Amino acid sequence: MAETLQDLGSDRTLLLVDDDETFLRRLAKAMEKRGFEVETADSVTTGKAIAMARPPAFAVCDLRLGDGNGLDVVEAIREKRPDSRIVVLTGYGAIATAVAAVKIGATDYLSKPADATDITNALLAGGDELPPPPENPMSADRVRWEHIQRVYELCDRNVSETARRLNMHRRTLQRILAKRSPR
C-alpha cells in the first residue's frame, strides 16, 4: 500500500523541473495543496543548482528541457541525496528513455499528460510496489497522434520528411495532421 506524505516524516521538500511555465505553476499549486514544500526550476542549470544547494526529498523532472536533458538533474539529486524519490515526466514516452531514467536513479517514469494525483502516487509508492494505474490513461489513438506530432516537430514541420521517417504515405500524414487530436 502506498505511503502517505504524513508517514514520510518532516522532510516534504519537492523540486519540480519543467520548462512549460503554465504546467509548472499548476503542478506546483497542486502539490502544495497535497502537503509538499515546493521549489521550481525551468531549466537543467537551475534544477542542478537547487539540487546541489538544497537536495530535495522528492523531485519531478521533465526529460526534455530547453537547455538539456532532465536526467542530468536526476543524477545531481542522486549524487547529493541517494534516498530521494524522483519521477521523470515526458511528453515523448519511449522504452529506451524509461530504462535510462530508472538506471540513473528515477523512482518512476510517467508520460505526459500526467496529473498531480498520478505524480503523487508515483512519488509515494513504497519500495518495489507499483503505483496504481492512472485514472484516465491516454487512448491508443492519442498515443499515436502524440508520436506523430513529436516526429513532425523534430523534422521541423516538414511533412515529406516526417512521412518518410514514419514510413507512411505523405497524403495520409497530411490527413492525420489536419484533424484535431483524439482524446
From TrEMBL:
Pfam families: Response_reg
Keyword terms: Activator, DNA-binding, Phosphoprotein, Transcription, Transcription regulation, Two-component regulatory system
SUPFAM superfamilies linked: CheY-like
SMART domains: REC (SM00448)
Occurrences of domain Response regulatory (ranges): 13-127
PANTHER family: PROTEIN PILG, STRESS RESPONSE REGULATOR PROTEIN 1
Function: Member of the two-component regulatory system RegB/RegA. Involved in transactivating anaerobic expression of the photosynthetic apparatus. It is a transcriptional regulator that is responsible for activating expression of the puf, puh, and puc operons in response to a decrease in oxygen tension.
Name of the protein described by the UniProt record: Photosynthetic apparatus regulatory protein RegA
Organism listed in the record: Roseovarius gahaiensis
